Amino acid sequence: GAAMTPDDPRLDHAAGDVLQRYFDINGQIVPWRGQDKMLAIGIDQLRRIPLLIGLVASPLKAISIIGAARSGLINALVVDSRTAARVLDYLETQDVDSQQVGRKDSRKNGQ
């Protein structure tokens, strides 16, 4: 049967999951109530697998893809062109935003 999403408010900030190992956009693992009772491969075991392929076909999953890659729970990706474009757009936008914040902070400090 299909896996159920745990009902835990800590997961409200999760970007996605790989085998019910939840993570945020930065790739940090988000623990949830009851995960210790789950019979599944551990995160460390999963990360030791040489090829971890994510398969995604939805631009709506861009943030999940980024979080999964940053978490080390995937290291290869199969996507359609629309999804790939959305991931790249998101990353470029975030990079520009962080650079602008850095410039604003530099101006405030007289640099």
Give the radius of gyration.
17 Å
- Characterize the biggest β-sheet: 2 strands, antiparallel
The helix count comes to: 3
Structural class: alpha+beta
Counted beta strands = 4
Beta-strand portion reads: 5-15%
End-to-end C-alpha gap: 59 Å
Poorly predicted sequence stretches spanning 5 or more consecutive residues = 101-111
- Molecular shape: globular
Percent range of helical residues:
25-40%
Please list the strands of the largest sheet in the order they lie side by side. 1-2
H and E order: EEHEHEH
Estimate the mean pLDDT confidence: 85
Structure description:
This protein has about 110 residues and is of the alpha+beta class. It is built from three helices and four strands. The chain has helices spanning about 45, 60-70, 80-110, and strands at about 15-20, 20-25, 55, 75-80. The strands form two sheets. It has a two-stranded antiparallel ribbon. Strands 3-4 form a two-stranded parallel sheet. Helix 2 crosses helix 3 (about 80-110). The longest helix has 28 residues, at about 80-110. The protein is globular. The model is unreliable at about 100-110 (pLDDT under 50).
